[in-house]
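Hey team,

Filing this mostly as a record. A colleague (T.K.) asked me to run one chain through the structure pipeline before their review meeting, and I want the input and output archived in the tracker in case anyone asks later how it was produced. No errors, nothing strange. Just documentation.

Input sequence:
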Amino acid sequence: MAQSVLPLGTVIQGSGKVLALFNGMSRRSKRGRRFWQRAAIFVHREVIGHFRDETGPDGPWKPWAASTKAARKRGRGGNKILQDEGTLMGSIVFTASERSALIKTVLDYAATHQEGDREKNIPARPFMFLPRDKVRRIRKAYSRFIRTGRARI
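Output structure:
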């Protein structure tokens, strides 16, 4: 059976435009710091919003136990869950590079609140998550950035 081969030197109509498009996409993918910085800011705002709204991916956080409520002192965050002094929320930071963004906290106890701890009777109150619609929004924005260079999210 004969195979059809297209030699690399073959000129395809409009190939200059196609080549320019691919070259531009490649350049933008290597210079993505601007996009990833904006994506990190977007995600950071979302995470901070979870503290403000006291919500996780499945709805409102479990309220304080009666004993916690009675013992609670009024801190910077008022009487909001996970915000007594604002340390956890204030520890959420981000960095961006040419190819990615990272949103994190370095506090040891953050994972306990994110995932819960049955032994200590601490319920999970997830705050580090991004709803599917926000993930789709970032994906669409990245696709647009690669095609056009616009870093808007």
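Quick notes for T.K.: The CA atoms of residues 117 and 148 lie 46 Å apart. The radius of gyration is 23 Å.
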